[in-house]
Specification:
10 helices; globular; disordered N terminus
Length: 321
């Protein structure tokens, strides 16, 4: 009776009211499904068995920040490591620490400065992976501004490094490892993007950095489509702030994870969505940003970055004094 009475009332309403009611119900269902899916993938979905991709993983820039976090998490999963970085002493320190903690892990160190001769560096990586079952590539190497600045204030060296390291290096490293993955018909490529390019509408005073990370996102998405039927999973991970030297953040917090905290979440997402934000508080912030008008965000972000610029200029002035 209640259902019949409700339907009678519904049918008695004007057509526009009925349409709004149906649309509202559909929106509610969609929101409920999205929320339930977010809860599942954020807290309950198990990570994949990463060893199914291969027994070796390559990590670029593994001696600090997110890259260092990845190396320990991958070693914990039983993978052997090829660590590619520019500082041989730091590479040795990281390798020794991993071996002390995970005694069965095999490690190869490859000294490459991605701001230098890329052709030589890529050749060294190719020689290091020869004959190995490399299943995972973590393209973590990247560089940002020392501090916020207007585009016309970028010096030639910084501009060159932003493009060469953030774009050319990950492109060529990927190109070097893909043939082996295709031959074995399995592999996972993880490119580290940035919320500066994807989540937020703009990042003024970091224009070139944000643009290079937008390239990483589109590059990843295209490769995901190209190779998903070849057994290769390509993914762009999009973190917000993480407590790293590059972000100039020393202390972690609820919304700013430590490098280990981020890496633990990141490893669990490998092989799933082509674009993801693994650390769940970051995905909450991403959702909230959808409700902020672009003009409001642009103004706030510009003001915030201007303050960073002023602090950086004062620091430079003190060094020169």
């Amino acid at each position: 009776m209640l259902l019949c009475f409700t339907m009678e009332q519904f049918n008695a309403q004007p057509i526009w009211v009925r349409l709004l009611s149906v649309l509202g119900f559909i929106c509610l269902l969609k929101f409920s499904f999205t929320l339930l899916r977010w809860v599942y993938v954020s807290f309950f979905r198990p990570g994949k068995n990463l060893k199914k991709y291969g027994s070796w993983a390559v990590v670029t820039a593994p001696t600090d920040g997110i890259g260092k976090g990845f190396t320990f998490q991958l070693a914990r999963k039983g993978l052997n490591l090829i660590l590619v970085g520019r500082n041989p002493d730091k590479l040795k320190d990281v390798s020794d620490t991993i071996r002390a903690k995970f005694g069965n892990t095999q490690i190869k160190n490859v000294v490459v400065d991605f701001s230098g001769d890329l052709s030589q560096g890529i050749q060294q990586i190719q020689e290091a992976i020869e004959g190995l079952d490399v299943g995972i590539l973590i393209n973590n190497v990247g560089v940002s501004y020392p501090y916020a600045r207007f585009f016309h204030e970028l010096d030639e060296e910084l501009l060159k490094n932003l493009v060469q390291i953030n774009i050319e290096a990950i492109t060529k490293v990927t190109q070097a490892l893909l043939p082996g993955m295709l031959k074995r018909k399995k592999g996972a490529i993880v490119n580290i993007g940035s919320g500066a390019a994807i989540i937020i509408p703009s990042d003024p005073l970091y224009a070139v950095y944000a643009a290079t990370k937008a390239y990483v996102d589109q590059f990843s998405r295209c490769l995901y489509v190209e190779y998903k039927n070849s057994g290769i999973d390509v993914q762009c991970q999009v973190p917000l702030y993480v407590a790293t030297k590059m972000a100039s953040i020393k202390k972690s917090s609820f919304f700013v994870p430590s490098t280990d905290g981020y890496a633990r979440a990141a490893v669990r997402w490998i092989g799933y969505e082509p674009r993801c934000t693994p650390y769940w508080p970051h995905s909450l912030l991403w959702g909230l940003l959808y409700f902020v008008p672009d003009s409001v965000f642009d103004y706030g972000r510009f003001s915030f970055n201007l303050k960073i610029r002023r602090r950086g200029q004062l620091k430079d002035a003190r060094k020169k004094a």
